[in-house]
Amino acid sequence: MNRPKQSPGCVLCRAEARRVNALRPALEKLGVKLVCLVHEWLKTEIGAFKPKFWSGELYLDKNKDMYRALGAGKVHKQSWIRFFCCCLCTLGPKYSEAKAIAPDSEPNVNGTHMVMGGYMVLKQGTKGVQWQFQEDFFGDHPAYDKLLEECQKAGSQKLTEQEGKQAKADREDEDS
């Protein structure tokens, strides 16, 4: 599964990375490899992101190919106008939630913050993209039950009911 991120320095992205990183043990049992792609490689931001928020493989998508795949051929970006118009009613609560999950994450003003990320679950072989989720606005994320369900479909193994409950509990622990 690929997780293209907005920016490894964004508080919302760091919290989301920490949440999905908590699913790593369950995903590994499924035979699903979890990697994170970033669209810019700023040394200070990468150093703050890994390993504190992301313990797995991290790659630079310099040409934004995965971002284009998520956006049906275009890199999905937000405008500064939408950001400022919506930040009071939408971003405030999302930011507060993200800070609760990643209290050790400081706001970042480095880099490009308008590129939206998402998730892409790929199946090995000729199956290609099994499922994808495009971030429409800052801090959007899929329902984790849906994400885990799609990874189970793509994985080479299956989780027992108990392992599925444990994965959900591990992810929820990150929210508290």
UniProtKB/TrEMBL annotation:
Domain of life: Eukaryota
Protein's cellular compartments: Cytoplasm
UniProt GO cellular component terms: cytoplasm
Keywords from the UniProt entry: Cytoplasm, Redox-active center
Record bears the keyword Cytoplasm: yes
Keyword Repressor in record: no
Compositionally biased spans, kind Basic and acidic residues: 160-176
Residue segments, region Disordered: 155-176
Stored PANTHER family: PEROXIREDOXIN-LIKE 2A, PTHR28630
Family: Belongs to the peroxiredoxin-like PRXL2 family. PRXL2A subfamily.
Protein name: Peroxiredoxin-like 2A
Organism: Symbiochloris irregularis
